[in-house]
Structures are given as C-alpha cells and as structure tokens.
Amino acid sequence: MSFAKHGKHKQTWYAVYPSKKLKKKKVISINVLSKKLLIRRDRKGKLLVCRRRCPHLGADLSDGKFNRGYVVCPFHGYKISFDESRNNCKYAIQPFPVQERYGLIWIFNGPKPTHDLPKIQTKERFVVKLPAQIVNAHPHLVISNGLDVNHFNQVHDLSFTEMPKVTSSKIHVSVSFKAKSNMLLFRKKQMEASFTTYASNIAIASIEKPISFDVMFTGLDRNRKCKTQTIVFLPKSIKSIQAISLLYILLHDDVKILSKLKFQPNFNEADKAIESFHNIVNSIAEY
Ligand code: FES
Ligand SMILES: [Fe+2]
Predict the structure, then answer these.
(1) Does residue 145 sit within a domain?
(2) Atom 3, ligand 1: which residue's CA is nearest?
(3) From the CA of 83, how far away is ligand 1's center (Å)?
(4) Strand partners, 31
(5) Residue of the nearest CA to atom 4 in ligand 1?
(6) Which end of the chain, N or C, is less surrounded by CB atoms within 10 Å?
(7) Which domain holds residue 94?
(8) How far is the CA of 124 from the centre of ligand 2 (A)?
C-alpha cells in the first residue's frame, strides 16, 4: 500500500525538466524520484537520461566524455555503454525511456514503458506551461483532487445538474459531470467537464462549457511536497482570459485544504472515482 507515501515512486511518466533549459551538447545533473540522474542532449537534439553513478567505482558520469552509444568515465576511463549488448564496453547502464512533450522532458520511471504518455490535441490551441508550483501535499492527492467530485459543492460552489459518471481501466479513471456554477464570475452558467487521471501522477481536466479548454497536471514527490506542473491548452481567443480565471478559482481553495489534509482511505459510495484511483496507484509497481 504505497498510496500517498513519500519516497515511493511508481512506474509511470514523470516531467523532470523544462525542455527549453537544456541546450544541445549540454549535460545536467538532477535529483528526482530519489535518484541521481544526468540528462544529456546531443548535437542533434536527442536526449539521454540515465543514472549518474559509474558502475565501476561510482564516479559521476556527467563529467565524462560522451560519444555515440557510450560515455568514457572521468575516473578510470572505462567505456560505459548505453546498450545492454555493451558493444565492446566494459560496463553498461540502462537509460530511462524519455520523451519530450508540452515543453517538458518526461522520463518513464522503469525499465520499459508500460503505458503511453497521454496526448492532448494542440491544434488551434495555445499551449501554456505555467510556472511550477509547490503544494504541501503528496502528488497522489494533488492529482486525484479533480476525481473527488464529492467536494465540488462544498468547496467550489458547484451543484450537479447531472450526476457524475465514472469510468476506469487498468491505468485511467475518468469522471464526467454537468453542473451549475454559483461563482460570481460564472453565475448560473452551465458547466460541463471531465477529469481523467493516468496512472499515479498525471491528470487532464477537459472543460467543455462555459469555455472549451484542457489542463494537464503532473506532480513530482519532492522534499515531502508536490512539485506541480500545469500545462494549459487554451482556445486562440479572448476566452483564454476567462479560462484562466476559471482555473484559478477552481484550484485556489483546494491547495489550502490539501496542505492540511492527513489522508485516510475511508471511502464511501460517493468517493467511487477517487477510490478507483487509489486502487490503481497501489497496483502499480515501484522502481
Ligand atoms: S569509476 Fe568509472 S571507470 Fe572507474
Ligand atoms: Fe477542487
């Protein structure tokens, strides 16, 4: 049972670094997912992510000399291959599966991806990556907050006009609903939206009404807090401003509650979606 336990990292995709900050032919060191990693971008733009520690006596490989398929360790000069077959190298290390999407570098925390990184339609949309935010709560709780439809009335002043529908699979949980907003800015407007989580740390909110836009959230467990990345897919119109205001209103009050929450899985029948998410997270292996 590792739901909302700090320092336990599930096998799924994590956003670990902003794409823009890593130029070609540069190597950087990062500490994420309780691991010491290096990320390198070669002269063609291709990324490599692996552990920094040399398999020989443990020197830091980010100071090594990188070549195609291997790095020369700065300590004893052994060649360390990035390929299991070793290719005449003394040692090998396995790189992490890596992808670049929505302005972020994502790695799969495991030997092989067991599921895809979700795709969002970007045509006719502005893709805006908001500054990373630190929330004083475990990422599992931050990511599943939108599945917790049970709090929408109390915290966000939304009344359902159609009861939430929940669907789920091995890795996703989705809840869709129609509601009336009593918030000042959207008074009496009909709201239609769905909220979907993928594995343990990605969520997508798709709002249809009153304004159509999508938001992707992802979180990293860091220093017992959640480093949250939010990417907004906005309509290319003035409605963007309204969309951002709606998002701000929806998220603002959650953060306050989550930061003081001491979670316990005492679910009732109204908590079906978040309970499914909880079970999915517990079923995913750690790495
Ligand atoms: S520590 Fe890397 S070659 Fe010895
Ligand atoms: Fe909320």
Answers:
(1) yes
(2) 76
(3) 17
(4) 36
(5) 76
(6) N
(7) 13-108
(8) 28
Per-residue confidence (pLDDT) for residue 273, from 0 to 100:
97
Supply the pLDDT for residue 278: 98
With a cut of 70, which residues of the chain have pLDDT below it? 184-186
Distance CA 32, CA 16 (A): 7
CA–CA separation, 223 and 240 (whole Å): 34
> Cα of 84 to ligand 1 centre, how many Å?
18
With respect to residue 87, please indicate whether it lies within any of the assigned structural domains: yes
pLDDT on residue 85 = 84
**129: domain CATH number?**
3.90.380.10
Return the pLDDT at 237: 80
Domains of the chain: total: 2
Ligand 1 pocket test target in 38, 52, 57, 71 with most atoms within 8 Å of CB? 57
Ligand 1 pocket, residues with Cβ under 6 angstroms: 54, 56-59, 73, 75-76, 78
Token pair 């790495």: residue: 287
d(CA 139, CA 132): 13
CA distances from 122 to 3, 32, 251 (A): 32, 28, 23
